[in-house]
Amino acid sequence: MAALSSTEEEYIAMSSDVQECIGLNSVLDDLGFAEEAILVMEDNQGAQNLAESKSVTQRSRHISTKYNWLREKVGSHDVRVQYCRTNDMVADHFTKPLGRVKLKYFRDCLGGSIGYSASRW
């Protein structure tokens, strides 16, 4: 589906990601792990507002109902959407080229390192 705005694109991606998380939660539940609310970190406040909205607005009515189940999950507290500044969005390094400083910061946040050293092991 082609999105008409970055907000819509982020909302559609959030819906898809939450579907994946629900599936993973089901597996974890089967393994005996306690199920918690899914926390979505979102840097697009419009997408966050859309997910937390209780009704369809004039500007969002064109979005397919196949994505709007996300609102129900947020309303039932199965999913929480939390704003995260773009500069702090660790997942960004998977989606776009970054400068050296930002790449190093995100790599360190994920516990990675550059290079391989047999002496480390």
Provide an overview of this structure:
It comes from Phytophthora infestans. This is Putative reverse transcriptase Ty1/copia-type domain-containing protein. GO terms for molecular function: RNA-directed DNA polymerase activity. The chain is mainly α. It folds into two domains: 1-84, no CATH class; 87-121, no CATH class. The protein is built from four helices and two strands. The protein has helices spanning 6-30, 45-52, 69-75, 100-109, and strands spanning 38-42, 79-83. Strands 1-2 form a two-stranded parallel ribbon. The protein is globular.
Give a quick rundown of the structure:
The chain is mostly helical and 121 residues long. Helices cover 41% and strands 8% of the residues. The chain has 2 domains: 1-84, no CATH class; 87-121, no CATH class.
| Helix share bin | 40-55%
Query: What are the secondary-structure elements, in order, as H or E?
Result: HEHHEH
Total beta-strand segments: 2
Give the CA-based shape: globular
CA-atom Rg in angstroms? 17 Å
Report strand order across the widest sheet. Answer: 1-2
The largest sheet is: 2 strands, parallel
CA-to-CA gap between the ends?
A: 47 Å
Structural class: mainly alpha
